[in-house]
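Please check this one:

***
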Amino acid sequence: MPPKKGPLGHDMPLASITTNRLEVLKRLQQRLSQQIDVTGDERSLVLLATRLQSVMAEIDKLAPASVPCIADQIAARRRRRSPA
């Protein structure tokens, strides 16, 4: 998701975007990834990478479970109906 722009064309702060925790975490993930790409300091890189890993773990916990495709749903119904 691209950063939302404020009235002056600058990226809006995380708190201004939304109160949805998952959206805030995804935005934070994007910012951390961008910082990792441009940092030249090894200490900063380690800190950013560690934080990125924890943010990604939180996103995985909050993200909705994936819905199986239609073919998988039909196959599951057939398995339930057919005698063993």
